């Protein structure tokens, strides 16, 4: 097709106000969608960083300090799990659901529910139990992003751990969080809870 013919066809198409308006609306809608999607994904990734998670003193001064003393923060291999690795699913649909759930945590920040160490400790058990339930309900999905018992060398584990990993965990009778509460953060006061 020759360029003058294409220009003439475009002129005829856009000469009619109704057709031109429709094309402009479609183009603006497409461009708006691209801009919205880019902005949305940029915001999602920005809120999925350790810097964002520790941006409020409630997290930075409490659980982040505890986490820094664990093997998930620093270890001999240099592999590090940050806040989102454990608390935000990798799959997009589950990630969106978790982000909506996290809005309750932001509300707690805005209202000052846990803005002092004393308030934080008073709510620690409630927050921990909510997180443990979420992990139990998802079969510790975020743990399994890094830890896969199919590739564990049971001969390098203690007897009890090797038995649990090769039987109960493999059969689905239990999940990671059943045994590994307090692995990255201090346990709350668990008085009155059987097994603690």
What is shown here, in short?
With 196 residues, the protein is mainly alpha-helical. The chain is 63% helix and 0% strand.
Helix and strand topology:
Layout lengths: L2 H13 L1 H30 L3 H4 L3 H11 L15 H5 L4 H20 L5 H21 L3 H4 L14 H8 L1 H4 L4 H4 L17
Description:
With 196 residues, this protein is mainly alpha-helical. The protein folds into two domains: 18-47; 54-196, no CATH class. It has eleven helices and no strands. The termini are far apart. The mean pLDDT is 86.
Features of the shown structure:
196 residues, elongated, mainly alpha
Q: Level of helix content?
A: 55-70%
Query: What fraction strand?
Result: under 5%
Note poorly predicted spans: none
Mean pLDDT: 86
Count the strands? 0
Structural class assignment: mainly alpha
Instruction: Tell me the distance between the termini.
Output: 79 Å
Order of helices and strands: HHHHHHHHHHH
Please describe the biggest sheet, giving its number of strands, its sense, and whether it closes into a barrel: none
Shape: elongated
Radius of gyration from the alpha-carbon trace, in angstroms: 25 Å
Please give the domain count. Answer: 2
Counting DSSP H or I runs of 4 or more residues, the number of helices is 11
């Amino acid at each position: 097709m020759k360029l003058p013919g294409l220009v003439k066809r475009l002129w005829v198409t856009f000469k009619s106000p109704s057709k031109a308006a429709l094309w402009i609306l479609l183009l603006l809608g497409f461009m708006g969608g691209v801009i919205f999607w880019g902005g949305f994904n940029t915001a999602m990734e920005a809120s999925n960083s350790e810097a964002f998670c520790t941006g409020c003193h409630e997290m930075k001064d409490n659980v982040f300090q505890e986490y820094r003393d664990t093997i998930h923060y620093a270890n001999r291999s240099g592999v590090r799990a940050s806040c989102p690795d454990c608390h935000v699913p990798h799959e997009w649909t589950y990630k969106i659901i978790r982000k909506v759930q996290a809005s309750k945590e932001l509300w707690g920040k805005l209202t000052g529910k846990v803005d002092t160490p004393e308030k934080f400790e008073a709510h620690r058990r409630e927050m921990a139990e909510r997180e443990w339930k979420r992990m139990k309900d998802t079969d510790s999905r975020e743990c399994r992003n890094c830890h896969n018992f199919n590739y564990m060398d049971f001969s390098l584990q203690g007897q009890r751990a090797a038995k649990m990993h090769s039987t109960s965990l493999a059969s689905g009778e239990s999940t990671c969080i059943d045994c590994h509460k307090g692995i990255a953060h201090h346990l709350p006061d668990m008085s009155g809870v059987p097994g603690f």
